[in-house]
Amino acid sequence: MKQLRDFPRTLPGALFTGAFAVTSILSVSHPAQALFQDSPKAVLDEAWQIVNREYVDTAFNQVDWMAVRQQLLSRNYSSTQEAYNALRQELERLGDPYTRFLDPEQYRALTNQTSGELSGVGVRLRVDANSKMLTVVEPIANSPASEAGIRAGDRIVAIDGKSTRGMTVEAASRLIQGEIGTQITLKIEREGQRPFELPLTRARIELSNVSHALRQENGARIGYIRLTEFSGHAPEQMREAMENLLKQNVEGFVLDLRGNPGGLLQASVEIARLWLDSGSIVRTVDRRGASEEIKANQTAMTKLPLAVLVDGGSASSSEILTGALMDNDRAVVVGSQTFGKALVQSVHALSDGSGLAVTIAHYYTPGGLDISHRGITPNVEINLSEGERRTLLTNQALIGTGNDPQYLQAVNALKPTIALNRRNPTPSPSLLQLSVGQGQQQSTQ
Fold it and tell me: Are residues 108 and 123 in the same domain?
């Protein structure tokens, strides 16, 4: 098995199914493929071979996997879609929702998400709850949309002449994305103006997964960083955020992983190494029982006190990072129970542009914890009420501010260590452990 940490970070992994190791594209070498290389059966056999070779459960959930191949290749398919459906049905028998087939459209979307970039015009969209219209949340900085003057709140009523009435964000995104250098025309409705058409040229858009801000909390300078997904660009963006905040002489950090569903395994390892100077980050175990431990490598950027915010939407790569920082006494963890996903997937491109995600390993935190189905329990447990959750969801500018109870609890957990560091300006492991201990006392209260 190839080492997970050696894979390039820019190949795709599925964002919403957790941490991903990335493999090279595999070809199918079975001689029988020559008989149906131009039919959907070629893709079915490719997928079957990958699962047969890599799937973490060598018993295949008690499914006769050899018989599955025979069934898939003996049928006659009237369309590619029919073949795709047959493959999905067989994969479902494995009882693993993370091992799944992706049609070409799904695979392209997955690639965009986890690579952290796409080809489009750079607008974040939502369907307005009241008007039901496709609405711009914000234009991405330095994108064709921002340079053309598109504003938050603008309504997109047509894309290349096609009405967006009743259109989902996903459907609109498919129309807006396209080849770099090609043109698209958006029809815009703006408050106080007549509708107008805006021609735009698609470009490469780098998605930002990291936002940061300096917060002043009762005299303490707190560096707040929010990480929304572990894409290929996330480690670089995290480094830039940390550098910026360190230049502003912060005294501690709050790293917000709430709602972060995961992403690339390598991204979580690289980000852990920015915070953790030594110790284990994660241990993986493959189908043969072979274990590999990935460690920090003396490249941490800071030893300042750190609090990590998590909730039930923090999954997989988020849990790898949280477990590494928690088990090494590097951070106090604040919030609510995490999701509980301890599986690693490999993502393969298939010959017709579709893709396959297959579970290839289990992972364990440095302390040996298998978090499957139970997640990580924070040092400081604090749950949001329905009202508080609704307020933060409807006004995301309040997240990570004094209006966010979990954030305030994270700041409180840092204060004892910040106070000690003011008297002793060299942070030490014992001071970091004090933060964790203080967090446990607060949880009990």
Answer: no
Handedness of CA 174, 176, 178, 180 (dihedral sign): negative
Token digits of residue 88: 């999905």
Of the candidates 193, 217, 270, 194, which has an alpha carbon nearest to the alpha carbon of residue 239?
A: 270
| Residue in 193, 208, 202, 206 with CA at minimum distance from that of residue 148 | 202
* Other beta carbons within 10 Å of 285: 17
- CA 341 to CA 105: how far, in whole Å? 26
Angle CA 31–34–39, to nearest 5: 130
Q: Across the chain, what does the average pLDDT equal?
A: 87
CA-CA distance, 360 to 76, in Å (whole number)? 30
Q: Output the domain CATH number for residue 182.
A: 2.30.42.10
The answer to whether 341 and 262 are in contact (CB under 8 A) is: yes
Catalytically active residues, by annotation: 316, 327, 341
pLDDT band for position 26 (50/70/90)?
very low
So what's the pLDDT on residue 19?
Answer: 35
- Please tell me whether residues 433 and 303 are part of one structural domain: yes
Instruction: Over range 424-433, report the average pLDDT.
Output: 53
* CA pair distance 328, 293, nearest whole angstrom: 14
Residue 395 burial (C-beta neighbours within 10 Å; 0-12, 13-18, 19+): exposed
Q: Whole domain around residue 154: which residue ranges?
A: 118-206
Distance CA 85, CA 246 (A): 52
Residue 351 in any domain: the answer is no
Total structural domains in the chain?
A: 3
- Say if residue 289 is in the same domain as residue 301: yes
